[in-house]
Design goal:
By secondary structure, the chain is an alpha/beta fold. The protein has three domains: about 180 residues, no CATH class; about 120 residues, no CATH class; about 140 residues, no CATH class. The protein has 22 helices and eight strands. The strands form two sheets. It has a six-stranded mixed sheet with strand order 1-2-6-4-5-3, sandwiched between helices. Strands 7-8 form a two-stranded antiparallel ribbon.
């Protein structure tokens, strides 16, 4: 990762793009840099920042070391950091820790530190995430650097500030900046695929008339959800539901950057896909909701009227831009409300679970059915089935439906000694030979054609397939309990085979 002579600043003709290589001390000394409100929190942990320091130490024998790319948008007299915020703030923490040992450093190195720390921007956020990581990382770096000898600190500081550098890309157009973020991360260090979707849809938001306000709102919706929860929402729920409903097998690597196109749909504008008839229904629904909200804004804010929600459907088209962020917020909240995503065991139960003891009991049994790898695969199939049901029919007869969906999902756990991911997928698609023939059905695809709950709940439920299992390899009791019928009476829950 070493580099030769720093490149001179170049500007692509007619594109408003300038590219140059800048040393770390030049980057942190740039007082025009700004971290915009729509940026995500600072999420690097102590392992990330200490690994960066160790990399710098390892390459200190080379002439120079290039540490990635920083993309900025030229916003009047400011330079908004679009990509590279995590690295920029980490550089600042290292500089701040080095400054605590100023007396060990040469005068020229001290001068670079002072200039950089004077210009450094660490925005105070209210999310709590950034401040926690900044504090923890600074303490870790301070302790690590404090264990060195004065000679080691001087050698590191000089190399870090002068010989370490980044590729600095400056773009005049915000749309182009997000486009560059998207392409840089698709080809570079692997991120969550959802990070690429965030960049793409923020770029679409930036095309609007009220781009700054919409960017801020979209980013706040995104930041309210843990990144791992967002990744699971796409990779473990939405993407499998879409693919299995189509009757398709999932890629061997699951949801990756190659599949993000599933969540890029209707791009607004004369040249976007909105001109096609298949997109008109979604756009008309959005127009109606937007008009209702604008007309009744005062009444909604004062609680006189309920807000009108856009009728999202998992297998329906995605409207690019701000509607994507509303969709993510909608399905994150929906998954939590039915208990298939748990943010904390100490959080109060959602209202849906409080009102539906049968659903609560089904979820309890599913969680007790096992935590092995195969159990996790089966439980995720159940989660997909339950979310798809609620997406189509709401909470109507939800407990009864959950009981039947669990019985269907766990058939594969019942008839196989060892459950592989491929076995669960074949069962989801109705293609596994070990499953009783009458239940060899793709429920997700069937569900997409049901017009009401009776189409499913009027059918005989899956019975415990004891006749297909040798007594010596019967599943554990918690799996058998899935097939114990739940009866809800005035005195609470009762159960029998």
């Amino acid at each position: 990762m070493s580099l030769s002579e720093p490149a001179a600043t170049t500007e692509a003709p007619n594109e408003g793009l300038s590219t140059n290589v800048v040393a770390v001390h030049e980057l942190i000394s740039n007082s025009s840099l700004n971290i915009p409100e729509y940026q995500r929190p600072y999420t690097w942990n102590t392992h990330n920042i200490l690994s960066l320091i160790e990399d710098i130490q390892r390459f200190s024998s080379a002439d120079q070391y290039r540490i990635g790319t920083v993309i900025v948008h030229q916003n009047d007299d400011k330079r908004d950091i679009v990509d590279g915020q995590q690295r920029y703030l980490s550089f600042g923490l290292i500089a701040l820790a080095l400054n605590g040992h100023r007396n060990d450093l040469r005068d020229d190195v001290q001068h670079m530190l002072s200039k950089g720390l004077k210009a450094l921007i660490i925005r105070v956020r209210r999310d709590g995430v950034s401040s926690r990581h900044l504090r923890e990382n600074f303490n870790a770096v301070r302790e690590f650097i404090g264990s060195w000898t004065p000679t080691q600190r001087q050698k590191f500081a000089a190399f870090f500030l002068q010989q370490c550098s980044v590729v600095h890309l400056s773009v005049r157009d915000l749309d182009a900046a997000f486009q560059m973020f998207d392409s840089q991360n698709t080809r570079g260090r692997p991120l969550y695929p959802s990070d690429l979707l965030k960049a793409y849809h923020l770029r679409e938001v930036s095309r609007g008339d009220d781009s700054q306000g919409a960017l801020l709102e979209s980013t706040r919706m995104w930041e309210k959800i843990d990144p791992q929860e967002i990744d699971h929402l796409f990779s473990g729920l939405l993407f499998p539901i879409i693919e299995w409903t189509r009757g398709s097998h999932l890629p061997s690597r699951g949801f990756s950057a190659h599949q993000v196109g599933h969540f890029k749909g209707i791009r607004e504008g004369a040249k976007g896909r909105g001109r096609h008839p298949w997109a008109h229904q979604a756009l008309m629904a959005k127009a109606f909701v937007d008009e209702y909200t604008a007309r009744n804004n005062t009444l909604i804010r004062n609680g006189v009227l309920e807000p009108l929600e856009y009728p999202f459907q998992i297998t329906g088209p995605v409207i690019d831009g701000q509607m994507f962020f509303r969709m993510v917020s909608h399905y994150a909240a929906l998954s939590r409300s039915i208990g298939i995503v748990r943010t904390s065991d100490t959080d109060p139960e959602p209202e849906v679970l409080q009102q539906d003891p049968r659903l609560r009991e089904v979820l309890r049994r599913v969680r007790k059915a096992g935590n092995g790898r195969g159990d996790v695969y089966v439980r995720n199939l159940f989660n997909c089935l339950l979310l798809a049901y609620v997406d189509r029919f709401g909470t109507e007869r939800l407990g009864e439906a959950a009981e039947r969906l669990a019985r269907h999902a766990y058939l594969i756990r019942y008839v196989l000694i060892k459950v592989q991911k491929g076995s669960v997928e074949n069962h989801a698609l109705g293609e596994h030979d070990s499953v009783p023939k009458q239940h060899r059905v793709n429920l997700l695809r069937a569900m997409s054609g049901w017009l009401d709950t009776d189409a499913f709940l009027s059918q005989p439920p899956c019975a415990e397939p004891v006749h297909m299992v040798d007594e010596r390899r019967s599943p554990k009791q918690p799996v058998q309990n899935i097939y114990t019928e739940i009866q809800v009476g005035e005195d609470g829950l009762d159960e029998h085979r």
